[in-house]
Amino acid sequence: FASTKDFDVVVIGGGPGGYVSAIKNAQLGLNTACIEKRGSLGGTCLNVGCIPSKSLLNNSHLYHQIKHEAKTRGISINGEVGVDMASLQAAKEKAVKGLTGGVEMLFKKNKVAYFKGEGSFVDEHTVNVKPIDGSEEVKLNAKNIIIATGSEVTPFPGIEIDEERIVSSTGALELKEVPKRLAIIGGGIIGLEMASVWLRLGSEVTIIEFQNAIGAGMDGEVAKQTQKLLAKQGLKFKLGTKVTKGVREGEVVKVEVEDAKSGKKEELEADVLLVAIGRRPHTTGLNLEAVGLEKDNKGRLVIDSEFRTKVPHIRVIGDVTFGPMLAHKAEEEGIAAAEYIKNGHGHVNYANIPAVMYTHPEVAWTGANEEQLKEQGIKYKVGKFPFVANSRAKTNLDTDGFVKFLADAETQRVLGVHIIGPNAGEMIAEAGLALEYGASTEDIARTCHAHPTLSEAFKEAALATFDKPINF
Ligand code: FAD
Hints:
With 472 residues, the protein is of the alpha/beta class. It contains 13 helices and 21 strands. α3 runs antiparallel to α4. The site of flavin-adenine dinucleotide (FAD) has 35 residues, from α1, β2, α2, α3 and β3. It comes from Naganishia cerealis.
């Protein structure tokens, strides 16, 4: 007989949603277990998502700057500037290992019981753990269960991923050499970040996107400007284009595409094809049938506003349920779910979840975009300030982009902020605070911002919604 252990809370999945929730539950005094089948904690984000991609983005950007900008910046280099792929990948691995190991330490510190194995439902209060090391199965008896099993790559019908020549984002992060020609299906955030990495390292990169715009969810004006800037860097775009076939033939991949409007067909050749059309909820192996939980037509587990399924002590957070598939959204939900269990109330503001694309320049936004405000019939004012007029950006020779505020036409309350620019991902936190506290653009414009900083562009864009900016 398998042994049985009792817990107040069992979390299935150790990604940003699950691990954060497990720690919070334990900190709230609940006896908590977390089950993870990957062999390391941190989920998609730490292992094959946010963290490895940012390592490659950061180091490929540095390489690109040294190679192409050193001279203009007064730095002389004697000898070749090159890329050592093995070391570049090793630096990425080091970051991943350090962070996933760190989460394991946090589990120990907070006394979260960590089960390395696959969790599956036996009944509404029992989860079976099948350890990855093949040891005896364990049954966990739980008063509360949190499902945080995340997402997986959405396959492209008819295109077989071998993670060598036809890759998902996971394979695109692992390439051992720089492909001469890289084709990417999908102009969303993941596709464009991977495009930037390999473009900087020397690939010829083509983005094939069915829609007529890139960066799903971006403000329309920002998406257009971003595309222009990326095209200037050398990225090729085939928008309004449908992929009809993608097959590996030896060491090349043949990709058949079709113009979505005219139906005109074309064949492209690539050394590597990346399929980046999105991610879908992951529930395989959970044996959901044992508890009869509901899924919507996108495979997302259905929950109420307190993360409860129709079995009220089973809650769901992160990529496997509704909302944007982002690590910080999963974390917020993990904390709130723990607070609901312990105190009966928790809070996530879905109108203020920042999104960041870590290209260069970065693109970041939170709150509503212009298209959404128009659709909702909300009257708004726009305030914009370009980085070319910001002293720090000019000094850093890094002036592409702008800050754009959308404010209520009457009250000047901040409704949305959209930034293309250096460090946009850090700057968007200030917008998040403004939205959370119901600030007006005047509140921001009257707040002293340090000089010379990029954040002065933020202040001036806020000012531009109701008055003339000073420096532009
Ligand atoms: P996941 O991180 O997917 O974790 C779920 C975990 O559950 C997995 O480790 C899985 O092994 C485990 N699991 C599943 N089923 C079981 C089971 N039955 N038993 C035990 N364990 C199980 N988001 C950002 O916010 N910023 C970024 O910069 C960013 N970059 C990304 C880049 C890439 C290339 C990718 C692919 C994603 C990126 N994301 C980013 C998205 C982010 O990774 C996800 O939104 C986030 O990981 C979701 O967290 P989660 O906890 O819901 O699920």
